[in-house]
Structure formats: C-alpha cells, structure tokens
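Lay summary. Proteins are chains of building blocks that fold into shapes, and those shapes determine what they do. In this project we predict the shape from the chain. Here is one chain we studied, written as its sequence of building blocks.
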Amino acid sequence: MTLSRIQHIFNPTMHNEIDDLRVKYERMEMEIGVIKRVLKVPVDTVV
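And here is the predicted shape, written in a compact code that computers can read:
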C-alpha cells in the first residue's frame, strides 16, 4: 500500500495536488542530477 494510495483514501480532493507536487519534485531532482553531472559537483556540496 503506497503513501499516495493512503492519501487518496483519506483526502481524494488533495490527491491531484499531491501528485503534481511529487511530479514537480521528481523532475527537479532529475534536473539537479543532470546539472551535477555536467558540473561534476560532489553531492555533499549541493544540498
């Protein structure tokens, strides 16, 4: 049972907003990962 499924059961109206935030966050993490690879920045320095 995933967290988003639990949230959907408890609060269906917020589910889409939570999903949107999760997608944005994951995309942001991917972009940060790409930037780190391009700049070859150690993971510890950018948090």
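What the prediction tells us: Residues 36 and 44 are 11 Å apart (CA to CA).
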